[in-house]
Write a structure and sequence with these properties.
- This protein is mostly helical.
- It is 68% helix and 0% strand.
- It contains four helices and no strands.
- The longest helix has 28 residues.
- The two termini are 21 Å apart.
């Protein structure tokens, strides 16, 4: 029985042979996986595929939230606010760590 990779590979080969993919944007060029530098490199390809399919996993949102909080932290001068932002970063990082552990266990 063929695996999912074999089936998808077959579809891609058929589309290439028929010329159906030549008019697609980016055809023949490598994927730009640097569109979100806040996502660790080992997750970029999987998240890029999901994003292209119209699905952004919660982990991506957490990466982006943490990055935005870190930017706020750098710009903030009040010690009280910096402490509050750091607490938000820590909480978001814990959520992300749990989500990534679940993601790893599924792979």
């Amino acid at each position: 029985m063929a695996g999912v990779d074999d089936i998808i590979g077959g579809w891609i080969r058929e589309a290439e042979k028929s010329g159906a993919v030549k008019d697609l944007p980016g055809y023949g060029r490598p994927l730009d996986l640097e569109d979100d530098p806040h996502i660790p490199p080992k997750y970029r390809m999987a998240f890029r595929v999901l994003k292209t399919a119209g699905f952004a996993p919660p982990e991506v949102q957490l990466f982006q939230e943490i990055a935005a909080l870190k930017e706020r932290l750098v710009a903030e001068h009040s010690d009280y606010e910096r402490s509050s932002i750091q607490n938000e970063i820590n909480a978001a990082q814990q959520h992300l760590d749990v989500a990534l552990d679940k993601f790893k266990s599924r792979s």
